[in-house]
Design goal:
This protein has 6 helices and no strands. By secondary structure, the chain is an all-alpha fold. It has one domain (3-86). The longest helix is centred in the middle third of the chain and has 14 residues, at 46-59.
Length: 93
């Protein structure tokens, strides 16, 4: 998908076109576009929240996981708990 098509999907989704949200979410995840995923999550899209947690987990980004946890995303808490159980001496720094 071209950048222009991606931008068009973003515009459609921003104006409430629900049919644009699913492909936008998929492409944002593939592109690891954390900003777009954040925007989708802020609009209440739980799939975008899940994708943010997944990307942060795959990247080993403990700081991002902590931010997601602070934002109230339970999956981030679960991942952080699992990481701590694996290595209780690792504080993520």
């Amino acid at each position: 998908m071209s950048d222009a098509e991606f931008e068009e999907l973003k515009e459609l989704a921003a104006h409430g076109d629900e049919d644009a949200v699913a492909p936008l979410l998929e492409i944002a995840g593939e592109r690891e576009d954390a900003n777009e995923l954040r925007l989708l999550a802020e609009s209440g899209n739980t799939d975008a929240m899940d994708e943010r947690v997944q990307l942060a987990t795959e990247a080993g980004d403990v700081d991002e996981l902590r931010q997601l946890e602070a934002d109230g995303i339970p999956d981030a808490t679960e991942v952080l708990d699992e990481l701590y159980e694996e290595d209780p001496t690792d504080d993520g720094t």
